[in-house]
Amino acid sequence: MSDSLNSSDKKELWKSLQDYNNDPESLKFKHNEFLEEVTEKFDPEKISGISRRKFLALLSASAALTATACTNYRNKGEIIPYNNRPEEVFPGTANYYASTCNGCGQACGILIKTREGRPIKIDGNPDHPINQGKICAKGQAGILNLYDPERLHNPLYNSKIVSWKKIDDEIIPSLNETLTNGNEIAVVTGLITSPTTKKVLDDFVVKYPNTKIYSHTLLNDEQRRNAWYECYGTYDYPAVKFDEANIILALDADFLGNEGNYIENMRKYAAKREVVGKTDFNRLYVAEGRMSTTGMMADYRISLSPTKQYQFVMTLINELIKNGSAFSLDASARSKVEKFQSSFLNSSEKEKISHLINDLNANRGKAIIYAGDTLPKEVHISVNLLNEVLGNIELYDYSSASKSLVKQSTQQEVSKLVDSMKNGKVGVVVQFDCNPVFSLPEDYGYLSALKKVKTVISLTEAENESSAAGNYTLPINHPFESWGDANVRSGVYSLQQPVISPIFNTRQKESILLTWISGDSNSYQENFYHQYLMNNFNATIYTKKNPLADTKTFWYSALNDGVVLFNELSQRAKFNLNAFSASKEISSVTDYTVHLTESYFIGDGKFSNNGWLQETPHPVSKVTWDNYASISPKLAKQLSVEMNDVVEVKVNGKSLTLPVLVQPGVDHNTINIEFGYGRTVVGNVGKDIGFNAITLMSKNYSSSPFIYENVSIKKVNGTHKLASTQEHHSLDDTFVKDIHRTRKIIQEGTVEKYKKESNFLHEGKEKLFSITNEHQYTGHKWAMAIDLNKCTSCGGCVTACNVENNVPVVGKDQVLNGREMQWMRIDRYYSGTPDEPIISNQPMLCQHCDNAPCENVCPVNATNHSPDGLNQMVYNRCVGTRYCSNNCPYKVRRFNFFNFRDHFADAYYENDLTSLVHNPEVTVRSRGVMEKCTFCVQRIMEARSNAIRDGKELKGTDVVTACQQACPTTAITFGDANDPDSLVSKLREHDLSYHVLEELNVKPNVTYIAKLRNTHHSQEIL
Amino acid sequence: MKRTVLDYALKIRLPLTLFVVVVSFMLTFYISRPERDSVGYAPEQPIKFSHKLHAGQMTIDCQYCHIGVAKERHAIIPSVNICMNCHTVARKDKPEIIKLTRYYETGVPIPWKRIYKVPEYAYFNHSVHVNKQIDCVSCHGNVKEMEVVKEVKPFTMTACLDCHRNPHDNLPYLQKVNIGPENCSACHR
User: Per DSSP, what are the bridge partners of residue A649?
Assistant: First the structure.
């Protein structure tokens, strides 16, 4: 320290004004390093009486005291009964309400199971004549959308919350304004299945005559419908009686996968795949470019590019008219057909094609040809002619025609709308529960035209691409909160009723329109549409049916049944040959073709935000959470790409970069991509999942909006990992090739062989013996049988199991780690060659082995056996050693590596709302425990307690497992193996029954019925 | 041989301490057991409803109010409208009934204190037991004598299994009774 400082010395560096002025106080601070008090002698008397230790002791003691004093550990909370209990609601007992599914355009009848007023499960309505108690994966998992936390909670104007009143007050004048200035009101809708919604739209047009209604659905049956119109003069095409056909030829038609009412189709198809009592099989030929669910089921599969389908059909007609025709062709039609000389008959598939032609000839009148929705109209017209030539009149069900309430808008109509929007001729656009920005091909320019419209109103459940481009976003009720009806098949009218009051500040979509129709924002009432629906029901259905009951009774009985049936037989019209003669010819192309098809589970993108559906493995590729370009092994070799490599697909200047999946069996020139993926404005689950294949679509397609020729495909840098639940090993790998057959996981035969020697499967098998005394099951013994003849791998059982058993969504990253939690999976095995694979499907779940290997290795006895043959899992005992999973030969045990509800997407599904979807009958498992199929023990126990209550004997048929209930083909049978009269014990004794890995002698209780292929030869496959 | 401090510590001090610790632990464990199983728990209810009066003196059947007991899983706590079947007329002027009427009229459900609770992962079903002719008294005690309802028996897995294993000893009034299921999934799913 310098003492020589004086006041005259001005410093260059100073800390404060005192410092600068050399204030004596400041100098003092500088001299003394410590403050005065600090250096004083320590005097314990002076400090506080409470030392640190004492303080901490007091703190903990008081905390402990508070804890014991304030919590009454005996307090079990409160039990709150109803004030006035509704008669039908009983705590702990489920109620079922009949309703109608809105998942797709098929409007299947459903039963909604509710517990204490909240819907928890969807099943098919057994009274509904079309789906008959079954419902697909989409319909079942749709319940998760009800509890989606990202549904819109309030009406929005430019993303700001506003009241409904204000919205109506603003919109009604702007609607009226268009009336005065002559602008158009465009109402864009999706597929309309409800006659009453159509009536509301008609009323809207009456009130605002400048309104035009547009309907657009991404995947539609317009090609089929238009072809039917040209051939028979009606848009309503009849259902096909697949259950009466001996021969079915599917042309790129996934009628067992996702076309038409596939639930109905599957049931009818499986009716001729019955092995109990009779063996009257149909024979399924499939000619397709992609590999579809239907293709997997084929007895003969011809791989054929979709552009060659026309040529193929014409060749068939040409071959078949040589042996006569049920329909007489005139000279011009004949010459048109005869041009197609049989180039196919000399192709590599000639053996299959000659079988096909022979079969068609031999089964005239009983051989249906069915073309896919994505094929051009011209193919459908030719197929109609082919069916006429074969005389397949009896195979059409004219009493059950598919109706079209609102016609799809044509390409010209939509283009015209976009033009008027651009020219400012459209004052208001109402997007009525649809997503045209996503689903219309980009070259319409809909999105940019939408920005020119002053008022864009979107009625939607959750924010989507279209609502984001508009200014008014009005939240609508989920179908389970809505009234409604449907009439998509002649003679079948079904009702939809709400089963829960609206969770958010939403309104029924029709009520919103009704408010605008009334022109008064104060006129809205909650039961607006309910009343309207009842009035319309009384005016149309009641008068049509003319029952003895009064209107109210009839309404309630219709609501109870969910469906009203009446006779509505349409007459078969004569085939109009001119339609065929006038239809343009489609030349086949030899270059690459893109074939766009709808996703099996997320539909046209509607279910993008549904984790259960995103995680359901694709029926063929087993890929979850993604779409991809499905290409043949030959093309993959040519491009030198493998699975997960990225390619660029270019069509008419549009390109899409996406990963490839090498799919055995795909036609070499066909690139199959599923659309519905690649949503950008969607909730957290579906955002940026997959690639938007709609970018490849164009309004100027050559023959079908789903098929594009002149495609270039090339490898680009990078990889994109596809999360598949089953590994894709090479079919050429000698080590794993056909391991499922050599290890007898898959055992198959042919119908011929089975007819000759029914016991062929068990010949030469060793009898297994046990070295220990077997446990005797004296009471019930639960068992399952799965008929592989009927399983189409649709995934309905997997979803049903997810919903019933509270199976969590794990997310793509965890699927990549092999940690998917589904209790049930459908294994898919390839045999044969990569070009002509033979595919075998096998649902795999816990086999509930009598000698279960998992039980012996559990150190804490968390898995053990019940006296009725169940392999039980006790979550509270499980310490998570995972020994059981290691020792399970079937690999059906699932381990909770995380609390998956909390782990997935920042606890997306861990919230008060989504928890409502849980089945209260099944424990929600947390991290660190093993879980697996329980044979739906909660249903067994419910049936048991009902039997005790009613004083009856419990029968095996009283228990229906979730997967069994969902299976559209009744491939799954469950019951009591100790009851000799039960179907399951008959199936266990069936000649075709086998157990997977039976040589291990673990004695599984899931019996598989070997698949029989209906081929022309009797030698065993492979 | 001279005794060292170590000898004292090992032979007397240590065993003595261990003995005291073990005995006091065991005593506390067993004595506090019913307390921990909340036997004797009789909380004050929002309405001083007397089972002794209703079920005992007036001999109203249990199932008049607990309507679910023979049909469903839950016996159910009666909804207020059941009380009002009688009390729209009976004893309308008593303070507790006035309280009850107020609950009914305002539509507020009564927050009864819960006395019996099995954990969420145990699925108990009343109808199965009642339809096997098991008396309410066997588990819930003689409620007819209770002014304030209290828990008289522990509702633990041990208690359940004890009866499932030895139904004859526990339910002597039943001539024909099978042993109850003992497997895990009988109660846990």
Answer: A656, A713
Q: Token pair 């009779």 is at which residue?
A: A278
Q: Is the pLDDT confidence value at A332 over 60?
A: yes
What are A949-1006's pLDDT values in tens digits? 998 999 999 999 999 999 999 999 999 999 999 999 999 999 999 999 988 889 999 9
Q: Considering the domain boundaries, does residue A54 fall inside one?
A: yes
Residues of B in contact with A864 (CB under 8 A): 183-184
Fill in the amino acid letter for A748: E
Mean pLDDT of A405-421: 91
Q: Are residues A486 and A596 in the same domain?
A: no
Spatial distance between the Cα atoms of B49 and B52, rounded to a whole number of angstroms: 9
Under an 8 A CB cutoff, do A80 and B71 touch?
A: no
Contact A916/A926 with Cβ under 8 angstroms? no
What is the C-alpha separation between A61 and A55, in angstroms, rounded? Answer: 10
CB A147 within 8 A of CB A913: yes
Work out how many domains chain B is built from and give that number. 2
Number of domains in chain A: 5
B117 in contact with A, Cβ within 8 Å:
yes
DSSP label at A572?
P
In sequence order, the 6+-apart residues with CB closer than 8 A to the CB of B61 are none
Q: Is B102 on the interface with A (CB under 8 A)?
A: no
Amino acid at A970: T
**Assigned domain for B43 exists:** no
Sorted by sequence, the CB contacts under 8 Å of residue A830 that are 6+ apart come out as: A664, A731, A837, A838, A839
What is the ipTM, given to two decimal places? 0.87
A245 and A171 together in one domain: no
Closest CA–CA distance from residue B50 to any residue of chain A (Å): 17
Instruction: Please check whether residues B112 and B155 belong to one and the same domain.
Output: yes
In a domain, A863, yes or no: yes
User: What φ, ψ does residue A248 adopt, rounded to 5°?
Assistant: -120, 125
Same domain, yes or no, for A621 and A760? no
Beta strands in A677-814 (DSSP E): 707-708, 711-719, 723-724, 748-750, 782-787
Residue A209 sits in the same domain as residue A61: no
**pLDDT per residue as tens digits for the range B136-155:** 999 999 999 999 999 998 88
Cα–Cα nearest to A521, from A280, A849, A192, A172? A172
Is the minimum CB–CB distance between A363 and chain B shorter than 8 Å?
no
- DSSP structure class, residue B56: I
Nearest to B107 among A80, A83, A948 (CB): A83
Query: What's the CATH code of the domain at A462?
Result: 3.40.50.740
| Residue A888, pLDDT score | 92
Is A617 found in the same domain as A535? no
Average pLDDT over residues A866-873: 92
A891: left (phi over 0), alpha (psi -120 to 50) or beta: left
Tokens of A759: 């016991």
Domain range for B124: 51-186
- Could B112 and A872 be called an inter-chain contact, meaning their C-beta atoms sit closer than 8 Å? no
CA–CA distance, A553 with A545 (Å, rounded to integer): 13
Q: Is residue B116 part of a domain?
A: yes
CB contacts under 8 A, B 3-62 vs A, are: 38, 41, 43
Q: Is residue B41 part of a domain?
A: no
**A218 Cβ contact list (under 8 Å, min separation 6):** A439, A598, A604, A605, A675, A676, A694
Select from A882, A864, A883 the least CA-distant residue to A874.
Answer: A864
The vertex-A72 CA angle with A68 and A73, nearest 5°, equals 90
Cβ pair A345, A318 in contact under 8 A: no
Q: Which residues of A touch B132 (CB under 8 A)?
A: 948
Ranges of H-type helices in A642-794: 739-742, 751-756
* Same structural domain, B112 and B178: yes
**How far is C-alpha A630 from the geometric centre of its chain's CA atoms?**
19
Range of the domain at A669: 589-724
The two most distant CA atoms of chain B are separated, in Å, by 92
